[in-house]
Amino acid sequence: DTQLEDSRQQKDPLPLQSFPLDAEITAQFVKFELVTWWGDYGGLQYFDIERQIGPCRCIKELNITEENNQAKWDRDILIYYELENFHQNHRQYADSRDDKQLNGDRLKSDGFPDLPFSDCEDPHNNVYDNSTEKTLPIVPCGSIANSLFNDTVKLFFQDSSGLDRPVSLLNTGIAMPFDKKRFNNPVNDIELKKMLENKIAKPRDWTKQLWELDPDDSSNNGLENEDLIVWMRVSALANFRKLWRRVDHDDPKHTELKDGLNTAYPYFLEIEYNYDVSGFNGRKKVIIARDNEFGAKNTAMGWIAISAAIFFFSFGFLFSALTRLDQ
Q: Distance (Å, rounded) from C-alpha 237 to C-alpha 311?
């Protein structure tokens, strides 16, 4: 798409836009890059946020009507977040976890979580609690869990009466079934806070306790939280996207969206920025895409597959030629 290529070739294609922020917020400018790109499997809306520091909320309007059609915004709409220049594939970072702890098996004789494995290096393995004078294990431990993505994205649409209405987003069904089997709470799901309070410590950079990840759904709380499970599957590339939410098209509160995102309505995103990307010189994106039998569009995997095919074909041809010469 020419529009996508042109916007990325420019050094600074869009001006900074100012938004009203609270007094305690340090960053008062957010840079957006809005690009419409139509792939083979549905539409993508890119919102590029560059080096945002400190929490703030911004609202950005979605344009899905111009040069679009309803079929491209059919059911099964997915919301992803994407990070650039974040090296989850660094060996020490990828090893900084305790799989036995994540499976709920790192327990002491009294049945409560024990200190984690040595791969969870300082300072992400334990915390000394002055009130109890005890060393508490960090659950989940390690650098991966400590850096959990914590931005929040909400989707709204304006109905025919001009009322802004929230779109229901599902935070379950986003993790791979195989991964979900490897994450289990060490105690009963319903009694997480009661059983674990003052027995464990949260990761140092978290703003929530483990039992607060999804207090409304005990089956999606604690170590079994799907946001956590998705994040803990490290990416092989420095630029990656992860599934964040699914649009609930069956919610009776908005029957207008039962067949997909109706292009007759205006849509907008409310983004709460908490995740600081300045430390690794990164960028953040929110991506909206339509699911299909082949999954969402991922050009990186396509190039990897093509490169691997060329590599094996070249060596296959070379070995075949050498075999013929020997004969």
A: 19
Say whether 15 sits in a helix, a strand or coil: coil
| Neighbouring C-alpha atoms within 13 Å toward the C-beta of 61 | 7
Q: Nearest Cα to 140, choosing from 197, 209, 90?
A: 209
Answer yes or no: are the C-beta atoms of 247 and 241 closer than 8 Å: no
- The secondary structure of residue 270, as a DSSP letter, is E
Q: Which residues of the chain are under the pLDDT cut of 70? A: 1-55, 65-72, 292-300
Alpha-carbon Rg of the chain, whole angstroms? 23
The C-alpha atoms of residue 36 and residue 62 are separated, in whole angstroms, by 10
Max Cα distance, the chain (Å): 81
DSSP for 76-145, please give it: -EEEEEEEES--TT-HHHHH---HHHHTT--B-TTSSBPPPPTTS-TTSSEEEETTTTEEEEBSS-SHHH
- Residue 73: phi and psi, rounded to 5, are -120, 40
Token pair listed for 159: 């109905």
| Alpha-carbon separation of residue 77 from 30, 54, 66, 246 (angstroms) | 26, 29, 18, 6
Q: Which of 79, 83, 90, 28 is nearest to 56 (CA)?
A: 28
Helix, strand, or coil (residue 282) = coil
The SS3 of residue 6 is: helix
The tens digit of pLDDT for each residue in 26-52 reads 222 333 333 333 333 344 444 544 444
What one-character DSSP code corresponds to residue 260?
B
d(CA 143, CA 79): 25
CA-based nearest residue to 232, from 117, 126, 104, 98: 98
The beta strand positions in the chain, using DSSP E, are: 17-18, 29-30, 34-39, 42-50, 56-62, 77-84, 126-129, 134-137, 152-158, 164-166, 169-170, 240-247, 267-273, 283-290
Q: Which of 265, 185, 259 is nearest to 221 (CA)?
A: 185
pLDDT of residue 274: 86
Secondary structure (3-state) at 9: helix
